[in-house]
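Why this split exists: single-chain examples teach little about how molecules sit against one another. For that reason, every record in the complexes split bundles all components of an assembly together and asks for one structure covering all of them. Below is a record exactly as it appears in the raw files.
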Amino acid sequence: MDDVRVPISSDVDLVRARERGRTLAGELGFQQGDLTLVATAISELARNIVRYARRGEIVLHPIEDGGVPGIVIIARDEGPGIIDVNRAMEQGYSTSGGLGMGLPGVRRIMDKFEIVSEIGRGTVVTVTKWKR
Amino acid sequence: MAVPILKQGPYLIATIQSALTDADLVQLRDALVGKVGSYRSSGVIVDVTALDVLDSFASRTLRDLAHMIRLRGAETVIVGIQPEVAFTMVRLGLTLEGVATALELEEGLFYLAQKLHSARQEG
């Protein structure tokens, strides 16, 4: 299966991205409950792109490990970057008047979470969910 | 896509038909907060059965909606949160605190009728 790339620049793209993610995870055999987790994680990550960087992309990448399928979601932007990544990962912390649920929430519902951010260069969040 | 708002007696019923953008949700919130006044409604039902994702923004907007409508003097019930959506919300720490919820439209109407009834008795 090929990667799916969804350019993100508005809240309409956010809906499109999570629908594409749900479809791909469905094709990989994910159960209903996990489809919702994947779609919700994409929603949070894509919203962060729109909110902080204005534009970027979501890449959905199917993977496999010992016959177990998984999905890697990469949220990439060339925005301002996150000054304090550790704080951004704290529940309830937000610089945008949001709830601060975004990133820590996504980390909780995914199997693997990785964030690389560079001031002035942008942010890449990479999360993985395996099929149960 | 705008969400149709139906007036039924003293209630307003908004049935979400498909995935909504953030802008759609904010528009729904503002429309309901306004219409509660123009129709002098005592209760609002938001049916989210069709939503397959309720993320942090959607949860916050629904909570704000319910609180704003309460400040306007009416009650809100969110109905139809799907089991997997509820599961995800709890995992994310999104609890819709202080917002009434019901399984389906019928239970939502029953809840509002009871609220209205007890408000009359108290008044």
